[in-house]
């Protein structure tokens, strides 16, 4: 097939996308952000030179003009899939202006629900990592849902003060009577992409799940609790692409999941082709069970490498597989199933 990938800034996305297109046997049209024009051109040249003339110089093409995008979006007889990586405005514009299937997400409105049986220290550790590690990322937490029991026990105030101490501006939804000094949230569904969150109180886990489905974006949502049965109910009940138990939302990343590289993050459900049976009516969902694990800017990650001989390279036996990385954060085992 042929992929059209439109991405803003971040030139490191280009070699990742190109490698995945080559590995999957797809032709590629790339349009990067103007902020990285020279870097994108240099990286594209390296890739085209490495491919060599046998596969053809047009297998991976770099589009440099913004005006060309509209013409490309009209090529539904040539392009099989559009993958936008960028702002809500970019993704929404592309979805409105093409008949080509679009894989991606417009919003990253991620939630962390602090259950009544949560360990408060674990909750604070996860919340601070999920918001402050990279506030503008699509997998950063935007809304914190707290069980009402924490308001009576003082935990709500502790969470608020910990976030503020870390430089996070805390907004409130229906908490004006409990926390009158905090500003109101701009809307019930709002993505800050900055050091800011919305704090809400819910009466139960079921109310938290309903809230996530109503105001979330089906990207990544997390429960913090010591109750295993409740955690499993949350993992089953939340219909998001990634659902976590006791782990930072920042783990929602192709590289951290061991995919080696990432072409983007999708909240869509498209993939079936040909006669479609029951398997074609199913889609994937990432479930991660942790023990208070955080990303912490990947500190503690160890990379293992070994020199490759020419024979290994020819046979494609490079080790270690899946990116060759070992996670050693949180002091425990973090399982993806």
From TrEMBL:
Its EC number is 1.2.1.41. Residues 308-318 have a biased composition (Basic and acidic residues). GO terms for molecular function: glutamate-5-semialdehyde dehydrogenase activity. This is glutamate-5-semialdehyde dehydrogenase. It catalyses: L-glutamate 5-semialdehyde + phosphate + NADP(+) = L-glutamyl 5-phosphate + NADPH + H(+). The keyword Coiled coil does not apply. Coiled coil: none annotated. Residues 304-337 are annotated as: Disordered. It is an enzyme of class 1 (oxidoreductase). Keywords: Amino-acid biosynthesis, NADP, Oxidoreductase, Proline biosynthesis. The keyword Oxidoreductase applies. One of its GO terms (biological process) is L-proline biosynthetic process. Residues 20-174 form the Aldehyde dehydrogenase domain. Pathway: Amino-acid biosynthesis; L-proline biosynthesis; L-glutamate 5-semialdehyde from L-glutamate: step 2/2.
């Amino acid at each position: 097939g042929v992929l059209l990938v439109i991405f803003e800034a971040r030139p490191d996305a280009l070699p990742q996308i190109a490698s995945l297109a080559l590995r999957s046997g797809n032709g590629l049209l790339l349009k990067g952000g103007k902020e990285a024009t020279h870097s994108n051109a240099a990286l594209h040249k390296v890739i085209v030179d490495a491919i060599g003339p046998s596969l053809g110089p047009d297998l991976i093409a770099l589009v440099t003009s913004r005006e060309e995008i509209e013409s490309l979006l009209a090529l539904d007889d040539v392009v099989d899939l559009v993958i936008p990586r960028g702002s809500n405005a970019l993704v929404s514009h592309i979805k409105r202006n093409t008949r080509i299937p679009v894989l991606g997400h417009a919003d990253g409105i991620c939630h962390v629900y602090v259950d009544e049986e949560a360990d408060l220290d674990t909750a604070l550790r996860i919340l601070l990592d999920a918001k402050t590690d990279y506030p503008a990322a699509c997998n950063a937490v935007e809304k914190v849902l707290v069980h009402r029991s924490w308001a009576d026990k003082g935990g709500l105030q502790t969470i608020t003060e910990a976030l503020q101490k870390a430089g996070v501006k805390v907004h409130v939804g229906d908490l004006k009577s409990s926390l009158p000094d905090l500003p109101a949230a701009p809307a019930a569904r709002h993505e800050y992409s900055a050091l800011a969150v919305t704090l809400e109180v819910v009466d139960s886990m079921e109310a938290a799940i309903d809230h996530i489905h109503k105001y979330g974006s089906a990207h990544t949502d997390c429960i913090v609790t010591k109750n295993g049965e409740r955690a499993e109910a949350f993992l089953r009940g939340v219909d998001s692409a990634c659902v976590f138990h006791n782990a930072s939302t920042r783990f929602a990343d192709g590289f951290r999941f061991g995919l080696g590289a990432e072409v983007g993050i999708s909240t869509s459900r498209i993939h079936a082709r040909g006669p479609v049976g029951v398997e074609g009516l199913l889609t994937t969902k990432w479930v991660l069970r942790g023990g208070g694990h955080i990303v912490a800017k990947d500190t503690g990650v160890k990379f293992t490498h070994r020199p490759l001989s020419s024979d290994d390279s020819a046979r494609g036996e490079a080790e270690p597989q899946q990116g060759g990385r070992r996670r050693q954060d949180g002091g425990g085992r973090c399982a993806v199933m």
